């Protein structure tokens, strides 16, 4: 599609999600960028989108290459920890090239891929692998001695797609050095038949590899190149059972049979979600990934990655307190009437108000359902709130762990169920 049509689609989607701005804030992902977020900001308000361009006061997550930083951080960590995989039979004969001979293939030279190439070489703390090959929608470029990443990055910022343009401007009709080993193909998927130390899938294709051509992968495993590891920069995970089965099938061949490490996308490409913590979180993810694979030789990378994520989420949830999940609610005095609560619910556009004592202590709640029930029972609207309010049996203070609050509520419900059971037995 052309730029005008794309802009209209982005604007239309922005209008579609506007009604959800209180619960959903968009940010850039595969196929979108900071300029798209600018459109959302114009449509829905500047505070209802993240990663806006600098001219709107944004943090430019896409422009600065936040997702690419995750790829580079993961690559650096994996080079350090990769030798440990020799504990597994399929990696016993693995040869790791000297630091100066590391090279990578980048499938998808876009916001993630282009910035990955840039970041590899801008930070002296990084390993600096040769960018042996890149691909985009127009084809792929390959040079065993390394491509001119800086030129390609500048072209990408101006043109978007670079493979075909570089070939026509610099090789066919330009100033490309005579005798250069750079080759071009108009089939971008064929980049995956080439070999390198590392493949970086940074294109929005979930099945960049598969053992069968039935799923239309970028490349089938019988034709893929030789790599020591794959660091996924694009989003490849899917909860769909069929796709998860396809993923495990691919990993059994690539990881177990071919001895190629796969660093799963959601452990690598944290993007703007943990932008400030990529140097700490992502290397830890890579270390845990390799430890998990060595600990259980039967596990696949996707299975270990899932365990790491679940464990981390569970740990985070365990540390949450009631304050972390509490939402603001208007309060009303115990001495007020049903009509006062009804008016407050309407004015505040909420479904619940908190009833407080004379000392300001929460003692109960009144909800929309309580007002509806009062109307159905034909209670007078000037009746006291005590006629309809739900009284708290116990208070969960903000600093109390959520797990303790849940246990308390479970005990409360257990008491109610036991009391009802006794009443039914007596009856």
UniProtKB/TrEMBL annotation:
Transmembrane domains' residue ranges: none
Entry keywords, A to Z: CBS domain, NAD, Oxidoreductase
UniProt GO MF annotations: glutamate dehydrogenase (NAD+) activity
InterPro entries assigned to the protein according to its UniProt record, in alphabetical order: Aminoacid_DH-like_N_sf, CBS_dom, CBS_dom_sf, Glu/Leu/Phe/Val/Trp_DH_C, NAD(P)-bd_dom_sf
PROSITE patterns: CBS
A Pfam cross-reference name: CBS
Family (UniProt): Belongs to the Glu/Leu/Phe/Val dehydrogenases family.
Name under which the protein is recorded: Glutamate dehydrogenase/leucine dehydrogenase
Taxonomic source organism: Desulfobacter postgatei 2ac9
Phylogenetic placement of the source organism: Bacteria, Pseudomonadati, Thermodesulfobacteriota, Desulfobacteria, Desulfobacterales
